[in-house]
User: Fold these one by one.
Assistant:
Number 1:
Amino acid sequence: MMKRIVLALVATAALASPLRAQDALVTTKTLSPEVAQDCARAALAECRKRGFQVAVAVVDRAGIAQVMLRDRFAGAHTPTTATGKAWTAASFRTSTTDLSNISQPGMMQAGLRNLPGAVIIGGGLAIDAGGAMVGAIGVSGAPGGDADEACARAGIEAIRDKLDF
């Protein structure tokens, strides 16, 4: 009887060990540099079509910059702002417009506006694929966050067929 118990414990331990090793590692997906660049170029093209000179930044899922494009007459502040919007969208996994709406002065989430590096102005969107966030895009320089966001959305739509896996 004791042999069976020991054998059962050894078998259980042997089967459980690979499960623990697998749990120690996490697999993630992120945009390739080529797809990130396609996204940024499409957003820039959409803003140009609308007559706006902007900067566009695409970050990976951790908020690290992959691509930054600045149109020739976009303001000097736009690259930093676009990157900040993309970082904020990636960090919070939502649009910067939604964050702006829930963090107005006097609201419970108003403190979000004071977080270092957070740019809570419309124009930043998370990029989702296969049920996971794979990056984010930020646009700055159009007259208003809604116009920035429309260009960002056009960038995402331009790569949508590459993201559906």
Number 2:
Amino acid sequence: MNSNLNYAALVLAADRTANDPIALKAQVPCKAFAPIDGKPMIIRVLDTLIASPTVKSITLCGPPQALLPECPELNERILHGQIGWITNQNSPSLSAAKGLEQLDPDIPVLLTTADHALLTPEIVEYFLKSASDNEYDATVGAINYEIIHAAFPESKRTVIRLQDGKYCGCNLFAFKPRGRLLVSYWQKAEAQRKRPWKLISQTIGWQAVFKYLLGFLTLNQALSHIEKQIGLSVKIATLPFPEAGVDVDTVSDLMFVEALLKKKAENT
């Protein structure tokens, strides 16, 4: 394992659709600016990445340039060169592909999202230490749903149910130079992210779908199918932190995360 790798962070920060419900609820021009306990989500994510020793540079993909003055703290960081900014594309996967094109092709990349409001330096460093394994081209963060449910039983997450457990994504991806090819595969899967069986059928084939529906598909089998499809070695890094599996995807998520952070602040 090479634990000395430094990473460039790429943060996807544009809304998926117009009139995002979270932005409307918070009365801000885009979801990433929604304040949680007084601080915009995007600033929380940036502060976490800045505090993570393994992250050496940060680039935002989105939100649109015209909106940046609406978040003065973010705009100031961009204007002073503390973080980079590029315009977003029409979907997260296209934005990720565009962002990767702008970064040094020889530097490993951490990809995450602006709505990962509970992200901490501890989570980032744990994930990147796992991702630095020389055997793998790319690493995808995941968490056993039972860990999330035990800590936050009221939080509703998208779950992929496999024979060896229920798993949730963490919006954490790491790419070695060759592993960046995984993003083109992501474009194929993006439209089905909330429909696990369609996601599996379009990305790893119908044989895997039948196993999935019958409860026979394991995480390692799913990973093996993916590796055969794309010709890359991919690692699943299962994380022990319940916060890693909670992003702000809905208005109820926003309210839940805000209550959680307020309670945490009161106890410190």
